[in-house]
Amino acid sequence: MAIPDETGTALSIRNLTVSYHNQPVLWDIDLDIPSGVMAGIVGPNGAGKSTLIKSLLGLVPTLSGDVAVYGRPYAKQRKRIGYVPQRSSVDWDFPTTALDVVTMGLYGRLGWLKRPGRKERREALEALDMVSMGDFADRQISQLSGGQQQRVFLARALVQQADIYFLDEPMAGVDATTERAIVDILRRLRDEGKTLIVVHHDLQTVRTYFDWLLLLNVQVIASGEASDTFTIDNLRKAYGGQIALLNDTDALMFPASKVVR
Question: What confidence score (pLDDT) does residue 2 get?
Fold first, then answer.
């Protein structure tokens, strides 16, 4: 089914279904995410959050569905897309430096047969400086802390100069300083007109970080502006159990058996 070019829409999804071992992981997803927003994807374990991003990027097979990026098929828009995977999915023992990792983000523009030169090296170093990792350019990635590794992968996405960025739990397992730095960078990109689509697990920061929100649990529970979507009723539908949404000075409370990821 063709997806129309909708003015102001960064990502359009129609009838997306993904199944593992005959078990639906995502079911009949219809979604439109506007351009120029910092969008959070939130839901319980097993909700299909990471699978959604991977299916959009062609990293896992789908049973059905159509995806358009700025009104055109994903395959024709690859160069406009940046991706930061989960840190746990990366082989950090691979013998390469931080600068090499960031330079890999330029191959989509260069092609795999052309070697990066001085211009590309300068761009990669500038991206490392943006995430405060310029002094670690020649450091082996295995020697970096978790937060530093995450910054390097963010720099790799930045050097692509994409229009839409997919980030799979970029704040997971990093220290508070790194988390603030990542959020500041993402906000700056949003303010420049970029679109950020972020899988996120910490419900206490949803209101602070995101201006657009998708609540997901295999199906779309709710989507839209965060102020309208992040409600106790929608959270109950997504997470089940007893959830108390308190005022801004309090926290979101979950039963001990609920691990929110």
Answer: 43
